[in-house]
């Protein structure tokens, strides 16, 4: 975007919103909305607190574990569904059901199954992230031009080489799925921990809310948002690097 | 009719030739599902060193026949013999050139051209060497490190051609290789193909729906009729080989052969 012939950096709109936040906060209309400056100050406190570091570690490890599982299961399932019609017929409906289901409602069931701890959070992350990865991978595999597979067959490619071609040809869609999955996974880890509410970031949220530490509460939210967007952006950059795929596939 | 030696042979009869048959198609039929008869009782011989075109309107099964010869599709009935041996799968003696190029978008021109050799397990240095030779031969010297998306349609098909030539197959199976490139490129391509044939001494089976293209490049044209796909005529255009491409397009024999084929084919076009 340009204004009076000058190029405005993309983050400029963010600055405008933060100023609005600051003004609304300073008006002291609602206790729920402290000004952004005090959120910033609280952020310093939050980040340096020991409880935050512990929460961060637990959160990060359950997120990583859940995402790892979602990647392995999601990509494998998506490829199998894309390649084999019977598997697709069996699973497609369920994948779509879970993709659109209010998964938060299932978390109490996970708690019964996996206890009030990290395993439940890992499962929640997994459930939030995996389905979109499955669907995108499946779409990617189904989009592979049949002549590419005929080509590999006619030039004598073995199973391993053909699998490699499937994976690379579907890579743009797989990465799009991973990017969306990562963002959903952040939702999963927060919702999981909020509902379990005695571990990780969820425990911190509960603590701040119960003690009306709204600045701290918002600081934590800003931190999580930043994390989720950074992850998505990193994958987005990777996607851009292989964007040329799309041009040649038709 | 001024075509001196053009033979018009009726329904599926064998042309009388003394040359060695490299590919024999025996009683091949192809039925899709239970109803759609794509090919019915095809009997054909392809002679070594010749460029034979499979020509016909859409729906005549010419691509199906080519893919059966390639081993990419199973025939419902009948056999394909290559050098006297029955085949049911792709083999190193046949190389395929695809209508939509079928290049690996993540691989360079050189790597794409070397794909077949890599699948055969040739060491990297050797396959790069061979592929490089053919990339140059098809006129893409200087583009070895380019990616397919950086090339025009015509150049991409040249990569497809280099890939097929690199594996040193006896037979090149080309499925409407020039239909996805623009007209000017197409003409240049046809001229290059004729030149390449003389250099490479391979057998070409060439699927096309363009009568002009078939007459221009072929030693023999097999005309297929649709629903069900059958051999309707076999034509050997007798065009003097010593004339240049521009002269040829005005040559009387050329023009009359095109005209004759069009008359034969017209009744099948809706």
Write a compact overview of the structure shown.
The complex is a heterodimer of chains A (250) and B (270). Chain A has 250 residues and is an all-alpha fold.
Architecture overview:
- Chain B: Belongs to the ABC transporter superfamily.
- Chain B: Keywords: ATP-binding, Nucleotide-binding, Transport.
- Chain B: One of its GO terms (molecular function) is ATP hydrolysis activity.
- Chain B: InterPro entries: AAA+_ATPase, ABC_transporter-like_ATP-bd, ABC_transporter-like_CS, ABC_transporter_ATP-bind, P-loop_NTPase.
- Chain A is mainly α and 250 residues long.
- Chain A has helices spanning 12-26, 36-48, 50-83, 85-100, 107-114, 118-143, 146-154, 159-169, 171-196, 200-210, 214-241, 244-248; strands at 2-3, 6-7.
- Chain A is 81% helix and 2% strand.
- Chain A has a two-stranded antiparallel ribbon.
- The longest helix of chain A has 34 residues, at 50-83.
- Chain A is globular and about 70 Å long.
- With 270 residues, chain B is of the alpha/beta class.
- Chain B is 34% helix and 24% strand.
- In chain B, the strands form two sheets. Chain B has a six-stranded mixed beta sheet, with helices on both faces. A four-stranded antiparallel beta sheet of chain B has the order 2-1-4-5, with helices on one face.
- In chain B, helix 4 packs across helix 5 and helix 7 packs across helix 9.
- At the A-B interface, helix 7, helix 8 and helix 12 of A face strand 6 and helix 3 of B.
